[in-house]
Amino acid sequence: GEDVEQSLFLSVREGDSSVINCTYTDSSSTYLYWYKQEPGAGLQLLTYIFSNMDMKQDQRLTVLLNKKDKHLSLRIADTQTGDSAIYFCAESRGGYQKVTFGTGTKLQVIP
Amino acid sequence: DSGVTQTPKHLITATGQRVTLRCSPRSGDLSVYWYQQSLDQGLQFLIQYYNGEERAKGNILERFSAQQFPDLHSELNLSSLELGDSALYFCASSKGSSGALYGYTFGSGTRLTVV
After folding, report:
1. Interchain CB distance below 8 Å, A35 and B55
2. In chain B, count of helices (H) and strands (E)?
3. pLDDT of B37-76, one tens digit each?
């Protein structure tokens, strides 16, 4: 079955790096995503990675995928107060398969 | 502005009532997805429509129904409302029948409060 798990809360100081972790159970997952939800807003796609990749970097964001352990992480370098939000990990097997979201990790950035 | 429009933004109604939530997808997107976000259940997939036809069904209650119209906007109908239906309802859209490749574009949601 499909299950995506995340820790509920993370607190970091401004300027530090944040690492948000996610585990998933579906070994058929082909696409893995990170979404950001700011207060009062919908989810915004931050980045995605295909299962045949180990790492993807996009400016301050680095996504690491350990397919063997079914573990996905999102690293935010030089975390800013504007990064405070809920971050959702998600996975899909592609094709007509739906996207399954994790429970979300609330990131609090302390000035 | 993501390009996905949801109305109304807020809705307060009594138990037993029926409401309709509306979604206009981003221009060019053919698929519409409905999600329910509540504190205890997280983000739950309800249903997907692609070009007017139901494509996938998730944890949608029988009291809930949806449709997608020829102009591609979608409506989610919630009836016999219960207190537990209070949640944020999100609509998302994607170009193709699967949002898997490039992800979804989400609207800002409708907050439903059942009293």
Report:
1. no
2. 0, 11
3. 987 777 888 999 999 999 889 889 999 999 999 999 999 9
